[in-house]
Write a sequence for this structure.
């Protein structure tokens, strides 16, 4: 006999130390945001992995689809002039 | 952010699992469907190139099913595996050992959580998997159907059972399915202390009083053969192996990993001053590894069938904990529903963490973690 | 040193009781949470007992009558609501007490300053659950109320001044501690739509209670289990 109401899924983001951004650590179930935050603390920072946590309902995330991969990401592939290595600078010129 | 993509899929596939399954079956059955054939080609190419398959990628139905089965079994093993060791928490003979054991059993709950989460990216839910476990429709590792009779068993589990598990799991960190591989990276990192604590525990016993030494030897005698069985049936009798290897869910054969494990354990046993209960273990110069005695696979089959010493006990305790917890889970869900308006309004992550309602706790976490 | 023993035994015994939950918690996330609390408490116990002597000798070789913990913490787990009631009563007490110790300059100031952060989290955990169980379903409301009611009679003992912490220098005013505790507990209980129990906060037995080494029957069985293996191998190291 299982519980009639399943707790929703949350995504957990942890800032490992000050100065770094939050990164996705994993997910968990919790009945609400406050418990999600606490469960995340207990589960994902028990070895001092973090100094700050975000929890986000999994349903609140909109993600790009693999089907759109080509149209989303390939156009960025042929614009090498966005990168500093594209440009040739004479030897000996410094601080550029 | 691959991981975010991963979980978006959970939501998507939860709703559209059937549709996705349908598309997959078409591909498997016909190959006449051009887009599906393209998908399969892309999938095969990604696996061949050692790229990771992510949740929203197209994948063959059988690949999805194999992964769900394996991750579920793995997750179930973690949480059932809490029981034999938790059996000794209240009797741990020193406070240091007690703290170590509690932390270890806690890790197992955590590892179960990581794995259920990884399985959820494939469109199943934890609740569904637990129901299958409780109904006996999904398995967990048979090793946990053996009892922990003495304190030394805690050490033997750490050394041999966790050792065998790690031998199995390290290659899984490179498994073709991204979420599973990522969960395994985290698990392997955390588990490295599990095996060491077991070894250290046995070492203390082996070098302790005569009674302690005997206790340690007895535990090794009882856990050695079941640990070897953890690698699964011999290669020529393993039903799932070939396909899993092709899909890079599995990287080495059962027998290959088993031999690797024996080779690792022989010198470790020597250093412990304990004997492995197999008179046939000897170095084979030609093979560059150890020969060892024949495994009694009939015992393995019996335990698998449910006739192990603790099958009923383990599953009934799990079921009982779940049933007795139902009112707690319901209560929290009911509370959340009553207080919902404040929780579900859409916000960006940044403003969520700064909102009045959660900021106190977020700060609190910063200070104490 | 009797104060270190009293506080250390509280932490040791409650940690043991929480350890009994392993594998039985209502949901996996709660397995992890309860184990965290148990581990914090065990850590506190080890520091405190080590101030008195060898931690293992003290934990494993004392007879029941030599333990100085509160009767509250030795009470069996019962259902989850019962455990949460015990957590609420004790963690609010421990939090308030350790805050005062941390603010003072007595011998416990250092360790209390570290422990108070852990205990603040335990208190928060208990409060969150009291709110959810109290204001959850009819069943959870009933169970939570019953847990609070059953354990109420063990809460009076908490405010008997602990020997060694009974002077003004200790920084602890036991009467103020009691009224702060009552106010804090009342606040949570009422927000959880529950009722503060009406009965007396201590038993009618004049002999005293846990701080005097007088315990309840379940405690004897608890330490029998806890000490059995250690005592079966005198002088062995583990």
């Amino acid at each position: 006999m299982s519980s009639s109401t399943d707790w929703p899924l949350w995504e957990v983001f942890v800032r490992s130390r000050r100065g770094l951004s939050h990164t996705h650590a994993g997910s968990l179930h919790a009945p609400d945001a406050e418990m999600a935050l606490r469960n995340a603390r207990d589960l994902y920072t028990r070895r001092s992995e973090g100094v700050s946590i975000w929890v986000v309902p999994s349903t609140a995330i909109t993600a790009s689809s693999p089907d759109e991969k080509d149209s989303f990401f390939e156009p960025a592939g042929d614009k090498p002039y966005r990168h500093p290595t594209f440009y040739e600078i004479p030897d000996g010129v410094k601080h550029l | 952010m691959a991981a975010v993509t991963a979980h978006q899929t959970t939501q998507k596939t939860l709703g559209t699992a059937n549709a996705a399954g349908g598309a997959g079956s078409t591909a498997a059955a016909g190959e006449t469907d051009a887009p599906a054939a393209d998908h399969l080609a892309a999938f095969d190419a990604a696996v061949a190139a050692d790229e990771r398959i992510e949740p929203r990628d197209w994948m063959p139905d059988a690949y999805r099913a194999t992964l769900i089965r394996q991750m579920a079994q793995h997750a179930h093993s973690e949480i059932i595996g809490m029981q034999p060791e938790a059996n000794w928490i209240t009797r741990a003979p020193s406070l240091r050992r007690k703290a170590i054991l509690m932390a270890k059993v806690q890790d197992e709950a955590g590892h179960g959580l990581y794995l259920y989460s990884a399985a959820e990216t494939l469109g199943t839910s934890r609740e569904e998997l637990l129901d299958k476990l409780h109904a006996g429709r999904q398995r967990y590792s048979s090793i946990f159907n053996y009892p922990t009779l003495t304190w030394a068993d805690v050490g033997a589990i750490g050394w041999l059972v966790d050792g065998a598990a790690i031998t199995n799991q390290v290659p899984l960190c490179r498994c073709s399915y991204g979420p599973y591989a990522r969960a395994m990276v985290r698990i392997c990192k955390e588990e490295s202390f599990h095996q060491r604590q077991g070894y250290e525990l046995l070492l203390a016993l082996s070098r302790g009083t005569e009674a302690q030494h005997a206790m340690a030897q007895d535990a090794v005698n009882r856990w050695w053969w079941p640990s070897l069985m953890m690698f699964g049936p011999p290669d020529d009798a393993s039903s799932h192996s070939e396909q899993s290897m092709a899909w890079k869910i599995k990287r080495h054969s059962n027998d290959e990993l088993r031999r690797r494990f024996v080779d690792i354990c022989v010198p470790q046993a020597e250093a412990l001053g304990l004997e492995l209960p197999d008179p046939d273990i000897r170095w084979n110069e030609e093979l560059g590894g150890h020969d060892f005695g024949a495994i009694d696979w009939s015992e393995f089959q019996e335990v698998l069938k449910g006739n192990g010493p603790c099958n009923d006990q383990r599953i009934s305790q799990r079921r009982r904990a779940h049933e007795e917890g139902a009112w707690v889970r319901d209560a929290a869900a009911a509370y959340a529903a009553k207080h919902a308006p404040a929780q579900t309004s859409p916000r960006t992550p940044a403003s969520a963490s700064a909102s009045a309602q959660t900021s106190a706790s977020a700060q609190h976490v910063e200070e104490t973690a | 040193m009797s104060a270190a023993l009293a506080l250390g035994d509280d932490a040791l015994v409650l940690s043991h009781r929480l350890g009994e939950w392993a594998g039985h918690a209502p949901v996996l996330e709660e397995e992890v949470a309860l184990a965290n609390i148990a581990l914090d408490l065990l850590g506190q116990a080890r520091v405190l007992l080590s101030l008195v002597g060898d931690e293992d000798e003290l934990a494993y070789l004392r007879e029941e009558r030599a333990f100085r913990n509160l009767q509250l913490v030795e009470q069996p787990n019962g259902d989850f609501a019962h455990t949460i009631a015990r957590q609420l009563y004790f963690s609010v007490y421990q939090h308030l007490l350790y805050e005062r110790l941390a603010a003072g300059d007595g011998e416990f100031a250092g360790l209390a300053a570290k422990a108070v952060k852990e205990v603040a989290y335990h208190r928060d955990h208990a409060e969150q659950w009291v709110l959810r169980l109290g204001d959850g379903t009819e069943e959870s409301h009933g169970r939570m109320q019953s847990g609070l009611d059953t354990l109420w009679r063990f809460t009076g003992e908490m405010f008997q001044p602990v020997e060694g912490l009974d002077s003004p220098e200790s920084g602890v005013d036991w009467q103020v501690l009691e009224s702060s505790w009552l106010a804090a507990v009342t606040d949570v209980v009422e927000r959880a739509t529950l009722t503060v129990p009406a009965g007396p906060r201590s038993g009618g037995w004049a002999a005293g209670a846990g701080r005097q080494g007088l315990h309840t029957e379940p405690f004897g069985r608890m330490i029998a289990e806890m000490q059995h293996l250690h005592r079966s191998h005198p002088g062995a190291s583990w």
